Amino acid sequence: MNNLNKKGKTMKKSKNKSEWTELFTFIKLLLEQKLLLSDKDLNPTGDYFKINKITTENLYLDFVPLSDIKIKSINKTSKEEIEIDISSIINDVSLANILHKIKNGSGTFEINDFEVIQTALGFSIVKGGNSSQKADIVLDIEHSTFVKENEGFGIKSYLGSKPTLLNASGNTNFIFEINGLDDSKIDKINRISTKTKLKDKIEAITKNGGTFSYLKAEKDTMNYNLKMVDSALPSIIGYLLITFYGNRISKLSDIVEHLCNNTNILTHLDIDDKAMLINKLKKFLVDILLGFFAGTKWDGSYESHGTIVVKENGNLITFHIIDIENLKDYLFENIKLDTPSTSRHGFGAIIQDKTKNYFKLNLQLRF
Description:
By secondary structure, the protein is an alpha+beta fold. It folds into 2 domains: 14-161, no CATH class; 166-301 and 323-366, no CATH class. It is 35% helix and 27% strand. The strands form 5 sheets. It has a 6-stranded mixed β-sheet with strand order 2-3-8-9-13-14. A 4-stranded antiparallel β-sheet has the order 12-11-17-16. Helix 1 (17-32) runs antiparallel to helix 2 (92-104), helix 7 crosses helix 8 (252-260) and helix 10 packs across helix 11 (324-334). The chain is elongated and about 75 Å long. Mean pLDDT is 90; it is low at 1-11.
């Protein structure tokens, strides 16, 4: 959670939905002291984690539940301990009021209820922290089969716009070579500015004899990370992008159906069948969620081992690698490709380089 930081910082009162939601999740866990495990449809499985400690990577305090109404804060440096009556500062009514304000807020906004809570808990709430952290919150958890300490969890929220899995950036551009296109057609194609300009540009290129040949991710780091997941993945991404932008099929599972109806594509990828393709993509989605960032070389390890989902009604549900099949299914069945800004991220136009022509497409993944 990037909103909780070291003592002595002043509080920035105005925050966006994402920042307020992270804090809402933190205090809700303090009150409820457990996390329900989820199936692929965001319904409780009946299994759960008991929470034995709550903190973040940027917070100087650990919070330890003592009973239904009491918690203990422990200063990580001085080891000072303070008992807090949690029921006197957080309850179902106050949480419902905060939830209402988060859902109805827009842009950046204030929620004064949190000032009382942060004062009582003894930490300051600030915007900051490390944007390259997968773990928004860190928990000690107890399950019927194990006990784990300092387990990292991300947070995905449905209180506002649907969350992203992979944000668009210059790191998520992919390059295609265009063969067979008459150079005299390039300027006219690049001037296409319709609402569906990317689809229309791709259609114009193919109608004028051009063919797309996938080359690589624009950034070497992204290419490396994809190969860390699976050696076939860079080429798979190429086909996903052409199908999405060229056919406007956005749901990942629907794109897979489209690709598998063309047996030549699977043969070209050296993939035996649909099940193998789906398995590779599911691993890719989990690795993005728990492991790599597009702009940082990845070693294959997970910083986070689970994700807490904040549902529209404010209920919390979690996925964890102990039940990775539900997580894989949830991701695969819900992820869609999205179209980011072409001007901001520098893609969607034919680029001429000496005797060759290129075209970039950008990968953004959203729930």
